[in-house]
Design goal:
- This protein has 112 residues and is mainly beta.
- 14% of the residues lie in helices and 45% in strands.
- The chain contains 2 helices and 7 strands.
- β2 and β3 form a beta hairpin.
Length: 112
């Protein structure tokens, strides 16, 4: 199975205290001129999963995003809340996971 390696960025997308749309965004840089691969999960669901999966989390495949989200932290236009970086680093995984996900969810383990 072919492996791919690159940068990732994990962001908290915050609309307001206890807002149902608060979520995390996980972006994978899959190439210099390509949009970012994107997965997300609501904070409500993350809290449920923390107890259920013991450190593993299921994220949902989202639409590709602009490259600026690899570095951006701050307010989002048109009243769409704020994003704050939680973690960034290097990922390594199977090519299908990043470029053409065959499933709509992935299961990841977060360390540190």
């Amino acid at each position: 199975m072919k492996q791919i390696k690159g940068r990732f960025n994990l962001l908290m997308h915050f609309y307001g205290k206890s807002h149902p749309d608060n979520h995390i965004d996980l972006f994978f840089d899959i190439g210099a001129n390509l949009p970012l691969a994107h997965y997300y999960c609501s904070l409500i669901e993350l809290k449920k999963q923390k107890l259920q999966y013991r450190g593993y989390y299921r994220l949902i495949y989202g639409i590709p995003h602009r490259r600026k989200y690899m570095e951006y932290s701050g307010k989002i236009d048109q009243g769409r809340g704020r994003v704050k970086r939680i973690k960034k680093g290097i990922y390594k995984g199977p090519l299908w996971l990043i470029k053409k996900p065959s499933q709509k969810t992935i299961k990841i383990k977060m360390k540190g």
